[in-house]
Amino acid sequence: MALIECPVCKKRMSSKATRCPSCNISVGEESESAARINSIQKSTQLQTHSFLALTLFIAGVVIWFWGGEVAEGKQALVGAVCFVFGFAGYLITRVRIVLHKRKS
Ligand SMILES: [Zn+2]
């Protein structure tokens, strides 16, 4: 059993106690809700990433087929890079979202 400092009154308390014996703040619940907020922020961040990757992917397709013809030269290269990075980024982010959901 270790002694930790109460986040509110700074008095020493057991790390296993869910409530501080001095000020009665519920330490266990506090850290749990902090973890939940962290988890929500993480999943929001992942949603943003997947949205950005999808946008890049669509931009790549648009650049590639701009004007109804398959692009050539530099434009084709830019389109292909956007397409590949957007696609890979989207897949990776989807996997991370699934892993994140499984964990929480
Ligand atoms: Zn306290």
UniProtKB/TrEMBL annotation:
The chain crosses the membrane at residues 46-67, 73-93. Keywords: Membrane, Transmembrane, Transmembrane helix. This is Zn-ribbon protein.
